Amino acid sequence: MSDFHQNGVITDFHNLTRRPVEALEQELSQFAKRRPMGLILPSLYSELEGPALSNIVDELAKVPYLNEIVIGLDRADRDQFLHAREFFARLPQHTRILWNDGPRLRELDSELESHGLGALEPGKGRNVWYCSGYMLASGCSAVVGLHDCDILTYERGLLARLMYPVAHPRFNYSFCKGYYPRIAEGKLNGRVSRLLVTPLLRALKTVCGPLPYLEYLDSFRYPLSGEFAMRSEVLEGIRIPADWGLEIGVLSELQRNYSHRQLCQVDIADAYDHKHQPVSEEDPSGGLNRMSLDISKALYRKLATHGVSFSSEDFRTLKATYYRLALDLIEAYDHDATMNGLSLDRHCEEQAVELFASNLLEAGNLFLDNPRERPFIPSWNRVQAAVPDLLSRMHEAVELDNQGKV
């Protein structure tokens, strides 16, 4: 069953009655004969030692329709990479690990930087970008999915529901965004989406006007989810931020490059829990503190490309508007939690809002102070135009890392 959420911008698929995962996988196995499917897993090495990833790998080992799995491995030395090869060896699919800190990929990274094309800042966006390049180089997948490696409640039906709209041969969707309830252990989670993105988008509509771009972003139920699927050609033309603005950046590029009729979102899980980031009030380089800065900057940059101009006064007005809207939402969330027997700490919620409001102003100052900043990683179309053989050399480097000596 589907409807058009909020303002009717994109198709919204509700799984009001869950189909058995085996039935979905049987259909997807048929779809895969026409549209082969692959999966990107951006991972820190530390996640191999965490509580979630081993179960994710066990679940993926049962998936019959995946043609390839590409793991982007960050912050790993040689011994850790060798351990990762053993860790993922139980996957029956064609599996490759991008050792992003290894000498072969570092050399290619330096070459890109010499052309002014490198991803200057390490992070999830950079990891996903390199994995996307490898997917394009391998040419094995017509549909590419992506999800995080810290999902504690992972079951393979999540992936099947995510891939289905893009893989179906009768559907014309180029991109699908996953969403799910952010409830776990009797608590209402998803603070950055609830307390930053939703009130910020509404504040921006008040300050800047009801722009189609803002209406589009506000039509996503969970714009910060790390789960999406797309046609492989989408990977060639999008520019994404290297930092925590990845999800907003991807949605923004899709709005620019594709018809809304080619985009959809789907309910992929009844329960979802993952590793929770600390707020990190005292450390602007980590946790929700850093995340809120990166997301705010990503929104400001994208609004600038839509012709919106900002001044210091605009950012002060935005902060005040956001703060009032966010406090009103906390009241509603508190009532919602009470009605559903959930817990919500209003004091902590308001502390987070105060931090986010301060960061809106800080992100605005950073935006105004760095007009020459190059915030987005170039598209792979541009990279291939500048260095035509780079993807083939990346493919060779990854093969050597995975099958040879390192």
TrEMBL record:
Domain of life: Bacteria
InterPro entries xrefs: Nucleotide-diphossugar_trans
Name of protein: Glucosyl-3-phosphoglycerate synthase
Gene source species: Vreelandella songnenensis
